[in-house]
């Protein structure tokens, strides 16, 4: 008999980690209206390292004392509708997400979210298949509202 993972109930805002990007703790808005997750990124620089397409960028308001400098493999370029509903080409990376002690890989588009309250939105494809229910009337049900433990 295989063990089944319990359903995790989360709020509309949770503290998550993206450790491969050097972002151990940042607040994410859970947005089931968005298909793709999006991370606020500035100074995006696309480059080639030994035939591997990569991107460097920084995340200025990730709840850290200073700007987080990030580096990741570029996996795609996609047309994604922005918050105004207009399509724009975005760079897509894949990285490890940690939410309430659970770990899995998600695709994230790099976007200008400077005017938004949260540097990260988690879209429905990042949550699909992980036995997660969202309570839209609560925040931080699964994680502390401050920096998560390392």
Structure description:
The chain has 150 residues and is an all-beta fold. The protein has a single domain (8-135), classed as Acid Proteases (Cathepsin D, subunit A, domain 1, Beta Barrel), CATH 2.40.70.10. The chain is built from 1 helix and 11 strands. It has a 9-stranded mixed β-sheet. Strands 1-11 form a two-stranded parallel sheet. The N and C termini lie far apart (33 Å). The mean pLDDT is 88.
Unreliable spans are none
Q: How many DSSP-defined strands? A: 11
Helix content class: under 10%
Helical segment tally? 1
Total tally of structural domains: 1
The percent range for strand residues is: over 45%
Named at the architecture level, the CATH assignment is Beta Barrel
**CATH level 1 class label:** Mainly Beta
């Amino acid at each position: 008999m295989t063990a089944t993972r319990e359903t995790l109930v989360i709020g509309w805002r949770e503290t998550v980690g993206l450790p491969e990007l050097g972002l151990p703790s940042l607040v994410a808005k859970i947005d089931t209206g968005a298909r793709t997750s999006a991370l606020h990124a500035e100074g995006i620089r696309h480059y080639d390292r030994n035939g591997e397409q990569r991107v460097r960028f920084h995340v200025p308001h990730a709840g850290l004392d200073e700007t987080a400098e990030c580096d990741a493999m570029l996996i795609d370029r996609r047309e994604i509708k922005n918050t105004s509903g207009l399509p724009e080409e975005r760079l897509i990376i894949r990285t490890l997400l940690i939410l309430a002690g659970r770990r899995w890989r998600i695709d994230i588009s790099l976007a200008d979210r400077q005017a938004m309250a949260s540097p990260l939105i988690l879209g429905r494809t990042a949550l699909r298949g992980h036995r997660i229910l969202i309570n839209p009337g609560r925040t931080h049900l699964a994680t502390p509202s401050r920096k998560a433990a390392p």
